[in-house]
Amino acid sequence: MFTLWTLVEATLLFLNAVCILSEERFLSKYGWGVSSQVQGFGEPTTTKGQILMLVRSIRTVAKIPLIFFNILAIVFKLLLG
């Protein structure tokens, strides 16, 4: 059954996956590493560049809140099953 909790849990799992994604080991294999986003001044950003910036932004901003939300999710699961 689809509930609000499953939506929150899926979002939490997705953000965890983005935060642990290794640029050097995983993304650079497929050409999505740091060196692939060389861009000149005034050039429009590509979709690939925007996705890479989104991944980096999520990693930068969401690290500390994710620890708190993961603890809450674990406690919630332990108490309510």
| Residue share in β-strands | under 5%
Chain-averaged pLDDT: 81
Uncertain runs: none
Shape: elongated
H/E topology pattern: HHH
Sheet with most strands: none
The count of helical stretches stands at: 3
Structural class: mainly alpha
> From the alpha-carbon coordinates, what is the Rg to the nearest angstrom?
16 Å
Distance between the termini: 15 Å
Quaternary assembly? single chain
Helix content: 55-70%
Number of DSSP strand runs: 0
How are the elements arranged and paired?
Layout: H1 4-20, H2 47-61, H3 63-80
Helix pairs in contact: 1-2, 1-3
Summarize this structure as a short list of keywords or feature phrases.
81 residues; mainly alpha; 3 helices
Care to give the gist of this entry?
With 81 residues, the protein is mainly alpha-helical.
Description of the molecule:
With 81 residues, this protein is an all-alpha fold. The chain has 3 helices and no strands. It has helices at residues 4-20, 47-61, 63-80. Helix 1 crosses helix 2 and helix 1 crosses helix 3. The model has no long low-confidence stretch (mean pLDDT 81).
